[in-house]
Specification:
The protein has 930 residues and is α/β, with parallel strands linked by helices. It contains 31 helices and 32 strands. The relative contact order is 0.07. This is Glutamate receptor.
C-alpha cells in the first residue's frame, strides 16, 4: 500500500500537528491487536501486567513511567492503519503488533519511514525479512521453524504426501509455501492446497465445500494452518463429514494449542471434533518466574481466559522495550522527534504533514533491542545476528486426547529435532539430528486408534486406477489378451493379482491395453504415459532400467532378468579324430615342443655322466625321443643321475600330470555329452564383428546396444515373435539375437538347435511401474517380497515359464577346447627350470674346462684360434667325465716329467703352501655332475 495514501488518510481525518519533546516523564508505547481474539485478550492482560511491574520498579526507567496505549483493530486492516498513525502523533517510541502479518507488511513501511521499532510475537510470516523491513522485529519464533517441525513429523512417521488447508492471507499462505519447501527437503510434498477465505470471514459453507474436495483426495494427512475461529469451524465440519475417523491424520499449527490453553475446559462438541489431532505449542522454559506469573494469572484475568505462551511473549516483549529504553537513556540519548523532509516536500492543499515526524533515536533503540540479552518468562531472550530470529526456537508437540485434554508426546527444537527430552537439556550436548535419535511418544490418532495411520487411501471419487498393460503379440505365456475382451492373463497378471490380494485394503482398478495388437508396443512409451497422468500404473514384463527409474517408481523386481545372446549351434558328432578335440592346435604344438625341449635338456645334463645317454648319434636321437614321449606315461626306462637333470624331470612330470588329467576330463566330456559349436561366443564376438543382430520389438535392448555397446543401428534388425527369431537365425539374416533371459528361455523350449552363447551381460529385473513417490509402490513391493518368501512366486513361475529340459540349454553345456592360456603358467615354470639348469651346467663346464685346459697347448692343436678353442670345448663336453679325468691325469704326469707344472709343495711369498687342486676339481664334479 502506498505510504503517501496512508498518510493522506490520517491527515484528512485529524489535521493536528505534532510537537517535539525532550525526555518526557511518560514514555509512550503503542499496541495494535484485535482484542476479541484469544491472543488479543491474553496479550492485553499480559502487557498491562508488564507495564505495572515496570512502573513499580523505579530502577528500570529512572523514575519515568511506561504507558502502553491499546488500539483495537477489530480484524480491520483500515483500523489498524489508523491506530498506527495515531500512535505516531503522540510521541510513541515503539509499537507492539500488529497481530497478523497482513498489517505487518503495511505498517512496516510506516515504521521504516518514521524509524519507530515495530515488535510482534504473533505476526510470524517468514517473508517479513529484516532486509526489507529493518524496523520490524519478531519476538517469537517465526513460522519457518513451525513448518520445519511439521515437516519433520511427517517424515518421522513415514508419510510422503500431505494436504494443506489454510486461510488465504499473507501469513498462512506464506507459511504453507515454507512447509512445501521443508517437505521437499525430506522427499515429501504437498499434494493439494485448499485455501479458505481469510479469518474470520470464512463461512461453514466455504469450509464444507473445501473439505468435500479434500475427502476425495488420496492423502489422509492434513495440515491445518489458520486461526482459531476458522480452525475450529474446520474441525466441526470435518467431524460431520466423517473426516475425524480412523485413517485420517490432522496436524494443526500453534493456533489449536492456544485454544486448548486459553479456553479450557472446551465444550463437548469442540473436544470431540479435535480428538486425535496433533498440534504445536511454542516451548517456554519451566522456570520459577513463569510459575509465579501463572499463579498470578487468574487474578490478573479475573479467570476470564487461560494463559497461553503468547501471553508470556507479550509480557517479555514489553520488558524488552523497557530494558532497551533504559540502555538508550543510560547512553545519554534523548527521546525526541523531528519533521520528515520527505513529507514536507509533499505539501500542498490542506494536508497537515507536520503531524508525522521521525523518532530521532529510533535506530539506536532498535539496535539496543536486537542486542538484548535477558531471561524472561519464556526463557533466555536473545536474537541471532544473521536473520534476527530468537535463539533456540522450539515447540512442544501436543496430542489431543479425551475431553480435549492435551497430552505432551515430545518436543521439537531447531538444535536437535524431535525428542522426548526437553530441548534445554540437549543444548549442552553436541547436536545430533540423525534419524535414529528422532523420537516421540505414542499418539492417539483420530478414531481413538494408536496404530500409525497409513496416511493415504485410494481416492473416493468413483474412479478406478487405470493400469496400463502391454498388448503383446508374442510370448503369450508372459501376458496375453483373452479373445477380443479387456481380460488379460499370463505370468505377469498372476503375479500382480497375487500381490494385490495381500494388500490390507481394496484396490479398485481396471486394465487398459496399450498397443495396437499388431506388434509389441514400446515399453518406454508405456512408462511415459504414467508421468502424463494418462495411466495410474503399468503392469507387465517391464524391465527396470535406469532411464525409466528417473521418471517413475518401480516395485521390487518379481523376476530376475538380463540380456543374453542367442545363436545357432551345430552338434559335434564323435569321429575318428575326436581324441584331438580336447586341445587346440596351438596347445598340441606347444605341448609337443616341450616334450622335445625337455628331452634335449635332460640329454645335455646327463650326457657326460650317464651311459644311457651316450652312444652313436642315431642311438642318442632315438634315446632323446623315447625318453621325451615316454614321460607322458611315466614309462621312461633311463635313469637320471645328475641333480640338475632330476630337478628338470620332476617339474616336467608335474606338468605332464596336469596336462594328462585335463585331457582325460575333456575327452570324457566330449565322448559322453552332446557338443554344440558356434562361431558366436558371446556379446564380445558381436561387438567386434560386422554381423547383423536381432532384438525384440519394444524392448530396451535396442537402445542398450546402440548407446551402451556402440553397435551401429544399421546392424540391428527388429524381430516381433519367436518364429521370426528362428527364421532370421536359420536363414542368416542375423547372426544372433539379443533379448532378455525369460523370453529366451521360452524361445529355447521350442527351438533346441539354438543356444545361449556367453553369459548374461546385464543384470536387471521386471517390476510394476507407479508414479513417483506413490505409496502403492511401497506396499506392492512388500507384497511381492511376501510372495517370494512363502513360495507363491515360484509356483506362479513354474506354472507359466517352466518348460521341458530343452529350454534350459545354455553355454554351460558347451565343452570348449582347452586353450594354451589355461596352461601357460605351467609351461613357463618348466621353461625357466630348463634354462636355469642349462645355465648352471654350462657355467660349471666352463669352469672345469678352464681349470683343465689352461696348460701349454699341444703342438698339434691350434689352440690359439677361436674356432680351435670352441672345437676343444665341444670335444671336452662330449667326453665322458671319467675318461676326461684319466686323460687329464696322464697329461699332468707327462708335464711333470718334463719339469712343467710341478705339483710339489712350494711356498709363496707369504710362506703359504700351494696344494694340488685335483681334490677341488673332484668336489665340483661329484657335486654337480653326479
Amino acid at each position: 500500500m502506498n505510504l503517501v495514501w496512508l498518510i493522506s488518510i490520517f491527515i484528512f481525518c485529524t489535521g493536528t500537528s505534532l510537537g517535539v519533546a525532550q525526555n518526557p516523564d511518560v514514555v509512550n508505547i503503542g499496541a495494535i491487536f484485535s482484542f476479541a481474539t484469544i491472543n488479543g485478550q491474553v496479550s492485553r492482560i499480559a502487557m498491562q501486567a508488564a507495564q505495572d511491574d515496570i512502573n513499580s520498579d523505579p530502577t528500570v526507567l529512572g523514575g519515568r513511567k511506561l504507558s502502553i496505549k491499546m488500539h483495537d483493530s477489530n480484524y480491520s486492516g483500515f483500523l489498524g492503519i489508523m491506530g498506527a498513525l495515531q500512535f505516531m502523533e503522540t510521541d510513541t517510541v515503539a509499537i507492539i503488533g500488529p497481530q497478523n502479518a497482513v498489517m505487518a507488511h503495511v505498517l512496516s513501511h510506516l515504521a521504516n519511514e518514521l524509524q519507530v521499532p515495530l515488535l510482534s510475537f504473533t505476526a510470524l510470516d517468514p517473508t517479513l525479512s529484516p532486509l526489507q523491513y529493518p524496523f520490524f522485529v519478531q519476538t517469537a519464533p517465526n513460522d519457518v521453524y513451525q513448518m520445519t517441525a511439521i515437516a519433520e513429523m511427517v517424515s518421522y512417521f513415514g508419510w510422503g504426501e500431505v494436504i494443506a488447508i489454510f486461510s488465504d492471507d499473507d501469513q498462512s499462505r506464506n507459511g504453507v509455501i515454507t512447509l512445501g519447501d521443508k517437505l521437499a527437503e525430506r522427499r515429501c510434498k504437498i499434494s493439494y492446497k485448499s485455501a479458505l477465505p481469510p479469518d474470520p470471514t470464512a463461512t461453514e459453507i466455504d469450509v464444507r465445500n473445501e473439505l468435500v474436495k479434500v475427502r476425495m483426495m488420496e492423502s489422509r494427512v492434513i495440515v491445518l494452518h489458520t486461526f482459531s475461529k476458522t480452525g475450529l469451524m474446520v474441525f466441526n465440519v470435518a467431524e460431520s463429514l466423517g473426516m475425524m475417523d480412523s485413517g485420517y491424520v490432522w496436524i494443526a499449527s500453534s493456533w489449536l494449542s492456544t485454544v486448548i490453553d486459553s479456553k479450557s475446559p472446551l465444550s463437548s462438541q469442540t473436544a470431540n471434533s479435535i480428538l486425535g489431532a496433533v498440534t504445536l505449542r511454542p516451548h517456554t522454559l519451566d522456570s520459577k518466574r513463569r510459575k509465579d506469573f501463572m499463579s498470578r494469572w487468574n487474578k490478573l484475568s479475573n479467570s476470564s481466559i487461560g494463559l497461553n505462551p503468547y501471553g508470556l511473549y507479550a509480557y517479555d516483549t514489553v520488558w524488552m522495550i523497557a530494558r532497551a529504553l533504559k540502555l538508550f537513556l543510560d547512553q545519554g540519548n534523548n527521546i525526541s522527534f523531528s519533521n520528515d523532509s520527505n513529507l514536507s516536500g509533499l505539501g500542498g492543499g490542506t494536508l497537515n504533514l507536520g503531524a508525522l515526524s521521525i523518532f530521532d533515536g529510533g535506530k539506536q533503540l532498535l539496535s539496543n533491542i536486537l542486542h538484548i540479552n535477558m531471561i524472561g518468562l519464556t526463557g533466555p531472550i536473545q536474537f541471532t545476528l544473521d536473520d534476527r530470529s530468537i535463539i533456540h526456537p522450539s515447540y512442544d508437540i501436543i496430542n489431543v486426547i479425551e475431553s480435549g485434554h492435551p497430552q505432551l508426546i515430545g518436543y521439537w527444537s531447531n538444535y536437535s529435532g524431535l525428542s522426548v527430552v526437553p530441548p534445554e537439556t540437549l543444548y549442552t550436548r553436541p547436536p545430533n539430528r540423525s534419524s535414529s535419535n528422532q523420537q516421540l511418544f505414542g499418539v492417539v490418532w483420530p478414531g481413538g486408534v494408536t496404530t500409525k495411520p497409513r496416511g493415504w487411501v485410494f481416492p473416493n471419487n468413483g474412479r478406478q486406477l487405470r493400469i496400463g498393460v502391454p498388448y503383446r503379440v508374442s510370448y503369450r505365456d508372459i501376458l496375453f489378451r483373452v479373445n477380443d475382451s479387456n481380460i488379460v492373463h499370463g505370468y505377469c497378471i498372476d503375479v500382480f493379482l497375487a500381490a494385490v490380494s495381500l494388500l490390507p485394503y481394496a484396490v479398485p482398478y481396471e486394465f487398459v491395453l496399450f498397443g495396437d495388437g499388431h506388434q509389441n508396443p514400446s515399453y518406454s512409451d508405456l512408462v511415459y504415459q504414467i508421468t502424463t497422468g494418462v495411466l495410474d500404473a503399468a503392469v507387465g514384463d517391464i524391465a527396470i532400467v535406469t532411464n525409466r527409474t528417473r521418471i517413475v517408481d518401480f516395485t521390487q523386481p518379481y523376476i530376475e532378468s538380463g540380456l543374453v545372446v542367442v545363436a545357432p549351434v551345430k552338434k559335434l558328432n564323435s569321429s575318428a579324430w575326436a581324441f584331438l578335440r580336447p586341445f587346440t592346435p596351438l596347445m598340441w604344438g606347444v605341448t609337443g615342443a616341450f616334450f622335445l625341449v625337455v628331452g634335449a635338456v635332460v640329454w645335455i645334463l646327463e650326457h657326460r655322466i650317464n651311459d644311457e645317454f651316450r652312444g652313436p648319434p642315431r642311438k642318442q636321437i632315438v634315446t632323446v625321443l623315447w625318453f621325451s614321449f615316454s614321460t607322458l606315461f611315466y614309462a621312461h626306462r633311463e635313469n637320471t643321475v645328475s641333480t640338475l637333470g632330476r630337478i628338470v624331470l620332476i617339474i616336467w612330470l608335474f606338468v605332464v600330470l596336469i596336462i594328462n588329467s585335463s585331457y582325460t576330463a575333456s575327452l570324457t566330456s566330449i565322448l559322453t555329452v552332446q557338443q554344440l559349436s558356434s562361431p558366436i561366443k558371446g556379446i564380445d564376438t558381436l561387438m567386434t564383428s560386422n554381423e547383423h543382430v536381432g532384438f525384440q520389438v519394444g524392448s530396451f535392448a535396442e537402445n542398450y546396444l546402440i548407446e551402451e555397446l556402440s553397435i551401429p543401428k544399421s546392424r540391428l534388425v527388429a524381430l516381433g515373435s519367436p518364429e521370426e527369431y528362428a527364421l532370421a537365425l536359420n536363414n542368416g539374416t542375423v547372426a544372433a539375437v539379443v533379448d532378455e533371459r525369460p523370453y529366451v528361455d521360452l524361445f529355447l523350449a521350442d527351438h533346441c538347435h539354438f543356444s545361449i552363447r556367453g553369459q548374461e551381460f546385464t543384470k536387471s529385473g521386471w517390476g510394476f511401474a507407479f508414479p513417483r513417490d506413490s505409496p502403492l509402490a511401497i506396499d506392492m513391493s512388500t507384497a511381492i517380497l511376501t510372495l517370494s518368501e512363502n513360495g507363491d512366486l515360484q509356483r506362479i513361475n513354474d506354472k507359466w515359464l517352466t518348460k521341458r529340459a530343452c529350454g534350459s540349454q545354455s553355454s554351460h553345456s558347451d565343452s570348449e577346447q582347452l586353450q594354451l592360456q589355461s596352461f601357460w603358467g605351467l609351461f613357463l615354470i618348466c621353461g625357466i627350470a630348463c634354462i636355469l639348469s642349462l645355465l648352471v651346467y654350462f657355467c660349471l663346464m666352463l669352469h672345469q674346462f678352464k681349470r683343465y685346459h689352461t696348460e701349454e697347448p699341444d703342438s698339434t692343436t691350434p689352440r690359439s684360434s677361436r674356432s680351435g678353442r670352441i672345437q676343444t670345448f665341444l670335444s671336452f663336453a662330449d667326453e665322458k667325465a671319467d675318461r676326461a679325468k684319466s686323460k687329464s691325469k696322464r697329461k699332468r704326469e707327462e708335464m711333470s716329467s718334463n719339469g712343467y707344472g710341478k705339483e710339489a709343495e712350494s711356498r709363496n711369498g707369504s710362506g703359504r703352501i700351494t696344494r694340488d687342486i685335483s681334490g677341488e676339481r673332484q668336489h665340483y664334479n661329484d657335486t654337480w655332475l653326479h
